[in-house]
Each structure stands twice: as structure tokens, then as C-alpha cells.
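Researcher: If only I could read C-alpha cells as easily as an amino acid sequence. Walk me, if you will, through where the backbone shape changes along the chain. I have put the entry right below:
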Amino acid sequence: MLRGRQRHPRDGATRLRRVPHPWSESLRRISCLYMDRRLRYSERKRLATEGTLGDLEHDIAPEPLRNAVWHVLSDRGGRGVGKSWMREVQAQCVRYFGWPNEGVFSFHVREGDSVEEFLDLLEIAVEAGQKRYRWSPPVRTSTGPGSKQIQGFPELEEELSLLFDRHRFGYRMKDGEVQRIGSPALHETVVGPALLAVQRQGWEEVERAYREAVAHQRGGEDERDDALTSANAAVEAALKAAGLQGDRLSSLAKSLRNSDLVPSELNGVPEALDVLLKRQEALRSNHGDAHGKAPGSPAVPQALADLAVHWAGAFIVYLAETSASR
């Protein structure tokens, strides 16, 4: 078991992603599933003893997170080009939310009740950070450069995602947009490989449907039925892309059972996959929106949407790898 530590070349911080923790090799593997940030003693201990940093929060933005976010925003907004950036952020918020003035910005970051407003506000801040602002050196000289246009804070998106990870907030920021996540570990070990596996000719429809499923999974309560429908469509498309025959999951499952995609040595596996495929179709029929939902139908539980998307992703990876080796 490796016990050495390495120092980050820029700030000297120890990074768990790069260096195994001396407690156990399993801790090293688990820690790699979290974002590349420095974990403190209490986090390392919890990760080693419980295997997780805790459940993710989606319905509220915890007060410690709001305080940390406010510190990041106010620190940037109080100096240099940050003053122009902060004025832009506040002006955009006033126009978008209809606030009475810019003076309520701090309140809505630190004490607002709405998670959606909090996330919208951060998208506005990140978008403004990508813009360019006029900057002048504090001391001008006859030979030195004058004012110039420089980009605001392009690193803000990553820093906010690190804060989300630290405070177990179930969202991340990517390409200027907030994305809902159910599990960082499952996202990295299932969703990522599935999207990578479909990067091949003939699998375009699989990628399109699976990306839709993931997007709906991260959406609100009213999108979870769409997640089931899209996950089902992605599995159907993957079976067809793998060369199996059929126009729906039941017939495609039969084609899979009679194919060589599952080795005969694995006794019972084809039948088990057949059952799973049929259950996937039942999920879509009972909870998805492909055939229209009856008025008053109960909302699809988030855990069910997560199950459908992650199971579909794992199966897509299996089909992509086995069909490529035929």
C-alpha cells in the first residue's frame, strides 16, 4: 500500500486524487470519484469509515454553502476588474428577477429561500465572468501599458462546483449551466463511460437519447417521466446499433438472448438480461410519458429515474464493448 504524498506544484496542497491515503487502498479508489479538491481531516475520516461524504442536498441551499459562495463573490467583486464584473452581475439580476435595486444582492445570495433563484443567480455570475472588462493598472507610467480589456473570472464556474461538492449540494456547473446530479460516483463510473462508449459511427441515436435521459434526470420533478422514456429509447437504440433485430424492447431482448453478445459460459445471464430489459420496458409503460400520463398520476420518484438512467448507461457500455469485439 502506497503511503507517500505529493505536493501540488502551484500551491503545495496534498491532492487525494493523485496520492493514495495511508488508511486503505479502497479509500484511494473511492476518493477519486469526488472532485479534485483538498479533503480535510473530518472528510478523510468519514470517507475511510463510511465510504461516502454524505447524502446530497437538492431541495435547499445550506447556509454554510451560501456563506461560502458569498465570500467568493464579494471577494472578487471588491477589487480590480471585479468591480465592473459585480456591477454587471447585479444589473443582470435586477433585470432578470425584478429586484427593486442592486442593494438586495447580498440578501438573495445569503438568505434567499429559493434554490432555483440561487442557482439562476450563480449562472448569471458565471456568465458575466466570461465577459471582458476594461482594466487599468493601479499605477500608470509613461512606458507601461495603459488600460486594456481582460476577461473577468473564467475560473468561477469550477470554484463554485468545488464548493457544491464540499457542502454536498447536488448540483455542478458546466459550460455556464447548472446540472443536477444524483451521485458523483455513479455519474463518473456510469454516465461518463456510457457517453464515451457511444462515440462511434452508427451510435448517434444512442448518444442523443441518452443525453436527453441524463438531462431530464437532472431536471425537476416534472421531467422524471421524460427521463424514463429517454432511457428506454437509448437502450432500444443501443440494441439496434449492436445489430440486434426488433422494433421494441421485448423483441430486441429475444434477439439478444439468441445472439452471441452474451457468452454461453455465463449460464443464466442472457435470461437475466432479458428480464431486466422487460422490466425497463415496464418502467417506461407505467411511469414514462411515451403514451401520455393520466391526470393526477403520481410523480416519478427521483430514485426510480436515477435507476433507469444508470441501468441504461451500464447496459449501453456493455453492448458497445461486446459488439465492438465481435
Q: What stands out?
A: The two ends are 38 Å apart (CA to CA). The mean pLDDT is 78. The beta strands are 132-135, 148-151, 171-174, 177-180.
